[in-house]
């Protein structure tokens, strides 16, 4: 008995890329905390610009009537004193420039894998056509659910003209539905794979920036500073803190803009390659369908349907009786 579910042969598996482990937080004699690095990651990946702007617009007030425990002394790492805002901005620009080259390599690899996958789909295409030929040349239980008209119930009384009219209308629509389901399943697989690969890659890239040694030191310092700001009368510290927050916000905006641009390129690449393959196969499917319908009519295949349907129903009644 044939299965009624639309055939969807296992797609050629796209690559499972071997990934290097994510960079671990750097450690030194000051034993930088992992928490401060996670704070930065969250700000890049999840925080909104409105939140960051609100923090920038309203830095912690130096209020004397609030009660705080005496803060621990905060050590500003000597290496941070030597790094100006200009130097830090240049580090970001250099990193983004390097990232662009890495993106080209990543995108080329993705496109090669898509090409291999599409080549592998040729065999799946042949199997799909074979499945369609078998499905519609013979009767199976699923037809009673798929066919919305009462043609099967009236099958014993239909003449040749009625059968011809049915296969050219409702029968053709059902075959087209099978095609759409098959192509949609494959398209969904390709999209999901592409998105997963992209998400893994871009998240690994931004983590390499967040976990840079000097950024970890800086983030740890300002995290501690924010815990004790009310006891710090040093306005120079407040200015540096504000610069730090503004710089993080600027980097986040630029990163998000870059990500959106690359995601648009990924969508366009999928459209160019996949759409052509899908269009070519749709033409071939229509040719197959016209040929199949003519064959179905010429061989008067409805007689086979009626015979096979009666046999299945008789077998079902026999098994139920037993």
UniProtKB/TrEMBL annotation:
Question: Known InterPro entries for this protein?
Answer: Plasmodium-antigen_C (IPR022089)
Query: Can you tell which superkingdom this protein's organism belongs to?
Result: Eukaryota
Enumerate the spans annotated as Tryptophan/threonine-rich plasmodium antigen C-terminal domain: 91-305
Species, as recorded: Plasmodium vivax (malaria parasite P. vivax)
One Pfam entry for this protein is: TryThrA_C
| Name of protein | Tryptophan rich antigen 39.8
């Amino acid at each position: 008995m044939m299965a009624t579910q639309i055939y969807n042969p296992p797609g050629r598996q796209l690559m499972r890329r071997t990934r290097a482990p994510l960079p671990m937080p750097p450690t030194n004699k000051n034993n930088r905390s992992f928490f401060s690095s996670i704070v930065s990651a969250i700000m890049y990946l999840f925080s909104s610009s409105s939140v960051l702007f609100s923090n920038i617009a309203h830095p912690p007030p130096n209020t004397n009537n609030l009660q705080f425990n005496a803060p621990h002394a905060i050590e500003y790492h000597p290496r941070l004193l030597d790094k100006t805002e200009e130097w830090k901005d240049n580090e970001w620009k250099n990193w983004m420039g390097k990232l662009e080259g890495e993106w080209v390599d990543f995108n080329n690899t993705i496109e090669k894998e898509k090409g291999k996958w599409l080549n592998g789909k040729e065999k799946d295409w042949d199997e799909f056509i074979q499945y369609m030929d078998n499905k519609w040349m013979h009767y199976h239980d699923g037809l009673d659910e798929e066919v919305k008209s009462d043609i099967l119930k009236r099958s014993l009384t239909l003449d040749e003209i009625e059968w011809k009219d049915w296969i050219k209308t409702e029968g053709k629509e059902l075959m087209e539905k099978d095609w759409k389901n098959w192509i949609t399943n494959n398209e969904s697989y390709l999209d999901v794979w592409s998105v997963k690969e992209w998400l893994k890659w871009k998240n690994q890239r931004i983590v390499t920036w967040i976990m840079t040694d000097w950024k970890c030191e800086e983030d740890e310092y300002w995290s501690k500073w924010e815990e004790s700001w009310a006891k710090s009368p040093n306005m120079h510290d407040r200015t540096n803190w504000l610069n730090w927050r503004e710089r993080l916000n600027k980097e986040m905006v630029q990163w998000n803009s870059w990500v959106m641009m690359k995601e648009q390129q990924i969508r366009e690449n999928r459209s160019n390659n996949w759409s052509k393959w899908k269009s070519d196969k749709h033409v071939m499917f229509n040719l197959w369908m016209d040929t199949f319908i003519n064959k179905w009519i010429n061989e008067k295949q409805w007689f086979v349907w009626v015979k096979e349907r009666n046999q299945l129903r008789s077998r079902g009644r026999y098994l139920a009786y037993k």
